[in-house]
Each structure stands twice: as structure tokens, then as C-alpha cells.
Design a protein that fits this description.
This protein is of the alpha+beta class and 279 residues long. It is built from 11 helices and 4 strands; from the N terminus they run ββββααααααααααα.
């Protein structure tokens, strides 16, 4: 059974189940809820967060400083965005994005805009998140009757990057920077302009995003792909040399040794870019 400990706002409850505290979200869930009452499970829409760390305690404190309207707006934005992901977005996004929107709108009203220095990189390497950021910005503008700057779409994109995937690093800026740096290494080593509209380039960037996520999370695992690796060394030496350059950069900057199978998959994508194949 889940019992109410405290109504945080009309949509959020602090509850207890099996001696563990959690925050629950559901529109109207907190309205009229009294301490000790049982929670109507059918009204729960999102968020089960055990309050067992400093970070989650901070999320609880946000319900006192951030108006409920921002949590409701953020929930609608997440619902819109979730339809474009096969994986479940991290539940903490409700809190981090609500806090961000609250302060973004406060800054906007004061005429203070924060310029994001990685706007170009996000638009190129994370177009889905950027387009969702554009839509989310429009939703916030309409909901709160403000006119947020264009860069707000990039800020929201960073929150979506952090909330997706398996990485626990929570540093989307670092992910975007590393994707960009590796893409630059590939362009430099191949010494050619790459057509960013091709299927192979999009596949390469998709692979690179997941690769960077694994690097930053320290989840690089060898799967014993040495036979295929030796074939790539023999038949696609240029692509493998580029992969080795990436290996050296990752080892130097992130103190992480890449196994041969990671180099194999990188070289496969790089080989396709080098050959200019469309399929």
C-alpha cells in the first residue's frame, strides 16, 4: 500500500511504501490528499523516486521553490518528447527541466539571456533533441505568455540528452563536445568534406553518440571481435588508422583503453564515409 505523507502541490505527493519515501506525479493527484490516506494508484502518471540521496532530496525541495504550473508544463513537454524515443526518458527530467524552465522564464522577464556556445554542435549532431527543444520552447511560450530566446531550444535539448540513454554521467555538454571532437578527427584524417545528408553519415553519428555515451559512462566492454578486427586492418587500413587516432585521443583524454571490437565498428562506419557509399 502507498500512503500519503504530504501533498506537495495539486499534482505531486510525497508518499511512503514499505518504509520508503517517494515522490509521485499525476495531474490532480495531490488535490485534497490528506496525510495517511491511501493513494489512488490509477491516478499516478509518472515518477517513483526513492528519497535516499542528496540529489533526490534536492528534487523534493524544488516542490517548495518551483510553482506547480512548471511541473505540469514540464510533464506535458516530456509526454510530447517521449513519443519520439523508444527508450524511457529518465524520471528525474520532470524535476531538472521544471527547475530550468522556471529560472529561464525568470531570466527572460528580466531581459537576461544565456547564450549556449554549443548551439551549432547540438543542431548538427542531435537534431532530434534540438527539434524537440524548439517545440518545447513554443509550448512554454504559449503556456506562460513569454518569448524565450531561440537558444532555449538548445538548453532543453541538453536536458533531453541527459535524460535519454544508459549514461549516468549526466553531462550532456561533455557528450556533445566529445562527439564533435571525434567527428573532427575523422574529417581531418580522411582529408575530405563529408556529406552530412547521407545515410552513412547519419548512421556514423548515431553510432558515435552511443559510443561517446559508453566512453563517458566507462561501460566499454570487449566482446572478442579480433577476427573481424584483423580483416578491417588488412582490407580497410585507412579507416583503421582513423579509428586508431580516435583510440589514442580517448586514451589520452579519458584514460580509457578501447578494445578491438570498438575499433572495428568505428572503422566500419569510417570506411563507408571514406568510400562515399550511400548504402
Amino acid at each position: 500500500m502507498i500512503r500519503v505523507k504530504k501533498s506537495l502541490n495539486n499534482s505531486m505527493l510525497l508518499v511512503e511504501q514499505d518504509n520508503r519515501e517517494m515522490i509521485l506525479f499525476g495531474k490532480g493527484l495531490g488535490f485534497g490528499s490528506k496525510p495517511g490516506a491511501l493513494v489512488d494508484v490509477s491516478s499516478i502518471e509518472q515518477v517513483f523516486i526513492p528519497l535516499e540521496s542528496y540529489k533526490t532530496q534536492h528534487f523534493l525541495s524544488l516542490t517548495d521553490s518551483v510553482p506547480a504550473a512548471f511541473f505540469d508544463a514540464t510533464h506535458d513537454i516530456i509526454s510530447m518528447a517521449q513519443a519520439h524515443y523508444s527508450e524511457k526518458l529518465n524520471s528525474v527530467l520532470l524535476f531538472t527541466l521544471a527547475e530550468h524552465l522556471f529560472f529561464a522564464i525568470e531570466r527572460s522577464k528580466s531581459g537576461m539571456n544565456v547564450v549556449n556556445k554549443l548551439s551549432w554542435e547540438v543542431k548538427r549532431y542531435y537534431p532530434r533533441e534540438y527539434e524537440l527543444g524548439v517545440r518545447a520552447t513554443a509550448m512554454a511560450n504559449q503556456r506562460f505568455r513569454v518569448n524565450l530566446p531561440d537558444d532555449e531550444a538548445v538548453h532543453i535539448a541538453f536536458h533531453l540528452i541527459n535524460a535519454s540513454g544508459d549514461s549516468d554521467s549526466g553531462d550532456a555538454h561533455q557528450q556533445v563536445q566529445l562527439v564533435n571532437r571525434i567527428a573532427e578527427i575523422v574529417r581531418y584524417k580522411l582529408n575530405r568534406n563529408l556529406d552530412i545528408t547521407t545515410i552513412n553519415y547519419n548512421r556514423f553519428i548515431t553510432h558515435l553518440r552511443y559510443f561517446v555515451e559508453r566512453v563517458l559512462a566507462g561501460k566499454i566492454v570487449s566482446r572478442n571481435g579480433d577476427d573481424f578486427y584483423q580483416e578491417m586492418v588488412r582490407f580497410h587500413p585507412q579507416a583503421m588508422q582513423v579509428a586508431w587516432a580516435i583510440r589514442d585521443y580517448v586514451e589520452e583524454k579519458h584514460k580509457l583503453v578501447l578494445p578491438n571490437d570498438e575499433l572495428t565498428w568505428l572503422s566500419i562506419h569510417i570506411s563507408r564515409l571514406a568510400q562515399g557509399e550511400t548504402e
